[in-house]
Amino acid sequence: MTFSVTRLTALAGTALVLVGVSAPAFAEPVTLTMETWRSEDAKAWNEVIIPAFEKTHPNIHIEYTPTEPTQYDATLLVKFQGGTAGDIIGCRAFDNPLNLYNQGYLGSVKDLGAVANFPAAKLVAWQTDDGSDTFCLPMVGTMHGFIYNKDAFTELGLSEPKTWEEFHTVLDKIKTDGRYTALALGTKDTWAGGTMGYLNIGPQFWHGEEGRLGIINGTAKFTDPQFVAPFAELARWGQYMAPGFEAQGYSDSQQLFTLGRAAIYPSGSWEIPGFRADGDFEMGAFKVPVEKDGDKCYVTDHTDLGIGMNAATKHPAEVKEFLEWTGGDEFAQLLADALPGLFPLSNSKPTFSDALATTFISWRSECEGTIRLPYQILGRGQPNLDAEISQDVANIIGGTQTPEDAAAQIQKDLDSWYKPAAK
Amino acid sequence: MSAAKPRKRASGWSLFIYVALAAYAASAIFPVLLVVYNSIKSKKAIFGQPLSLPGPGTIDFRGYETVWEAANFPRYFLNSGIVTLGSLGLTLLFGVMAAYALTEFRFRMSRWLSLYITIGLMVPIRLGTVAILKLVMALGLMNTPTALILVYTAMNLPVTVLILSVFMNTVSQDLKNAARVDGAGEYRILFGHVIPLIRPAIATVAVFTMIPVWNDLWFPLILANSEATKTVILGAQQFVGQYFKDWNAMLAALTLSIVPTLILYLLFSRQLIAGLTRGAVK
Amino acid sequence: MHSQARRKFWIIASLLAPALAIYTVFMIYPLVGTLQTTFYQTDGKLQVFAGLDNYRKLFFEPLFSHQLLNALGNNFYFFFIHMLVQNPIGIALAAVLSVPTLRFKGLFRSIFFLPTMLSVVVVGFIWQLILSPLWGVSSGLLGALHLGFLFKPWLGLEGTALTTLSLMSVWQNIGIPMMLIYAALLSIPDEILDAARIDGANGWELFWGTKLPLIMPTIALTAILTFIGNFNAFDLVFATQGALGLPNFSTDILGTFMFRTFFGNNLQQGDLNLGATIAMVMFFIILVGVSIYLFVVQRRITSYQL
């Protein structure tokens, strides 16, 4: 298709020239609305990213219209059914957009030239199971790890732990000292414990993709030691958390940390923009500890946000023009500057000015990457694997369930609906 | 007068009553005040000392500034006002008429019609959203206050009819019959005689139906989320992110959103009193 | 005679027409369409007729029937707390407010009604802030009363979360029974009360002997409104405990169960057919309650014309 060839060339760096040529053809700018749940990115999009795009694409005007995150999926579905959804669609990963695609709401983007600028492993999150079609371009990846209060660490004479043993020593020291809550984590919003606990540290035990694909292929089970071990590690965390952590929600944990009252915050790179605005102390980040110093490390580098096209949009050409642009170098650099921690997923190599973001992104080359375990295929049935893991983490930290029990129950519930395709 | 006697006898008792009322009042107002005065504190102070009043070091109007700059809040207030008052007017007018028809005339279908009209209370209207959306589009009412007004009127009619029916049943038959003998038509009886007698109930219904309309998030999100038709509650949602909440701006927006409901409440509250005195005059 | 009957018909019809028209078009029609989907299942872009299979799944597949029973049980508990706490206190407040000699009446009434005017977003935020173990509002207040040992992370514990949530809801909604009863008490003509006073009734006897029977229809009304409101409840649980009724489904009620099934939640994908089926169950539960009210209670309770 000539169009995509043109766009490929554009990506190669002649965008300015091409647009300069084609601009007079579009006298009236076309307005495209972008559906997203990321209200917190609105400023960056409205003040940095969209103006940069419109400067080189005067034929298009983009409106960034975020919906409250807990209402986004429901709202988007209703809008698709009613025919009022925006032109550009912010995609969550895996099954949610896959369902929208299967119902004919998301258009195919596989013919876009920009697809070539993404590694195959990142495209998987927005492709059909057989890989025959792609319905969103990858946009943002987030990485897991631990963020810590550097001032507190200096004050207590602590250094970044590398092994689990060091990690526990650090936690003990913070706890004994008593001035800081050692771990800013609560179990009221169970997803926080699941995502920032189990899915954060787990890959180190189950060796990333090896373990994740093992569960998918049926060669590994949750009752295997490498899946029970992270639960056992989490079972020790309760003593280091704030009293009453059962009623501590996700945003409580954020406040606890940014107010400088907690030393370590198990979380991920997506916190950086908000923490930059709120925390007035030095922050550092360390990756998930390993068994012995020098062990190979695994890091969750999750395919978090994609961007797609409403199949019913009246302006498919303009939407594609925009999507192509989000797959390029300019967008990657803008994203890196405006929203550090929301890492571009393309092959572009932007430079990062934010120290925390630089630390996180350095793990991409040091460690082997993986994605959150229950997201691909395994999240499809009921009981929902992710919800169950999250609830069990809360139980385990609260001491009402043993790691072995949780693992056995999870495997049993998974077996109840999931039959691995091949052994 | 008889009023003096119980007052004297019950002075210990009445002290207890005042203490109990004051205690309950405190529990009702304290949490609200907490939101209001935290809305003018710095974020650190909100979570650091949520109980303490804003002081020199902690006072911070950043939330209000953000709200003022970030969005077209005066416009949102206007939209919320149009939608709330519009649906309130229609609900009350049509609700009063329907309730009168159902209570005044015992016809064969009246109980079944009462049941029919209560069905709307039994299924969450959210489930009908897609059909409503298609309807609104077919009528060309997308992104208009009219769409919201119609939906909220339909949503509030059941409870309005249910409540007003109970109160209309208490209006004296003699009074209405006397009016009929004088040659008054049914509409005249309804608006001239019945409505003045149940003004407290109408004011109560007005307050009840206005609150869910003012506070609704769902239908503005679906039917009127353009910048020109956004409501206050929808506008406040822009400060709630997936991971970050702008607490200052949220508290400011929420505090501001309480004010109009309060004003409307006070207006209707006067109607309550008016109903009371008129009842006494009669 | 005949023409009079016809005139009466047209009067009734004209009184009912606007309400019924708007209501039927914007409420019944959309809901009927949705409830039809309970007999279908989604296959890609198609709706396939499935008979009663959604109902079979909901009632007999343990995965769903456990959630249904749990939500139903929680819903009844939620309702009982409201009936036991909200309505009696609401009546008591209204009774006191209607005492003619009470001072600061308007102020008290407005303050009592204040929580009812708040959106659930505010209510959820307020109580999470107050009850949070981190920020020390309730533990601080209890501590000041030397009751600090009583403090628990109530919203986070399976044993206490539902009760706490119910009480939050009571706190917010108490204005509704209060205002209704208050309006009913105000509608009682002074002649009746004066007559009772002349018969020597004191304030206490006046309330129990004269006023209460007169406001029985309104009390029944508040009961049915509470029932309907509670079995349709959703927002407050969703705002404070999420779509899963955390912790561990201990606050999961029919509304949240329906929402997450219909629209999906996080990685769980929505199933609009099954979700609508749950809504149908809610519909029948409330229908039974409302029918009892309309056909039994309302007929039994004498409505005194004042």
Keywords:
heterotrimer; A: alpha/beta; D-Maltodextrin-Binding Protein, domain 2; 2 domains; ten-stranded mixed sheet; 17 helices; globular; disordered N terminus; B: 282 residues; mainly alpha; MetI-like fold; 74% helix; SBP_1_CS (chain A); transport (chain A); Bact_solute-bd_prot1 (chain A); periplasm (chain A)
Question: Quick gist of this model?
Answer:
The complex is a heterotrimer of chains A (423), B (282) and C (306). Chain A has 423 residues and is of the alpha/beta class.
Could you walk me through the main structural features you see in this protein, from its secondary elements to its overall organization?
The complex is a heterotrimer of chains A (about 425), B (about 280) and C (about 300). Chain A is built from 17 helices and ten strands. Chain A has about 425 residues and is an alpha/beta fold. In chain A, strands 1, 2, 3, 4, 5, 6, 7, 8, 9 and 10 form a ten-stranded mixed beta sheet that branches. Chain B starts with a helix and ends with a helix. Residues about 1-10 and about 280 of chain B have low confidence and may be disordered. Chain C has one domain: MetI-like fold (Orthogonal Bundle), CATH 1.10.3720.10. Chain C is about 70% helix and about 5% strand. In chain C, strand 1 (about 40-45) and strand 2 form a beta hairpin. At the B-C interface, helix 1, helix 2, helix 5, helix 6 and helix 7 of B face helix 1, helix 4, helix 5, helix 6 and helix 8 of C.
